[in-house]
Write a structure and sequence with these properties.
The protein has 153 residues and is mostly beta strands. The protein is 7% helix and 40% strand. It is globular.
Length: 153
Amino acid sequence: MKSFHGMALILCAAPAAHAQTIVRAQEALASPGPAETFTGAVTVRRTAAAIAPGQANTALVTFQPGARTNWHTHPAGQILYVTQGCGWYQEEGSAAARICTGDTIHARPGAKHWHGATNRQGMSHLAISETLNGKPVDWLEPVTAAQYRGPAS
């Protein structure tokens, strides 16, 4: 019994640096996606920034119908989890793939790609991007209207 109490004291005396952090919903403020990196109406809610030694950044991104990212790459890759609606994901050199609620996309490190809503339905996804050498993303040129072909529904 004495060793149990001793363990409890050790756990209670753990340094504050190891304490959990809770970000409340109202603290993760949404902001418009910048026109320099998005086409159309996009809202970005940054949910977590990388905390050393971790490298992951997360954001909940909502695209209104027809909205999309510019072409871009992620030096350490990216994971997208579609939380609502349907949209498109396309890597350079491949056909656009329709993605919908519950789908998970793994973008390879350095793969040039874009993602966004269909032309008739909005989409939200959780984006998880790792940082490499202090950089989570390299933004490139906009996706043109000819490159973006939203589905009929």
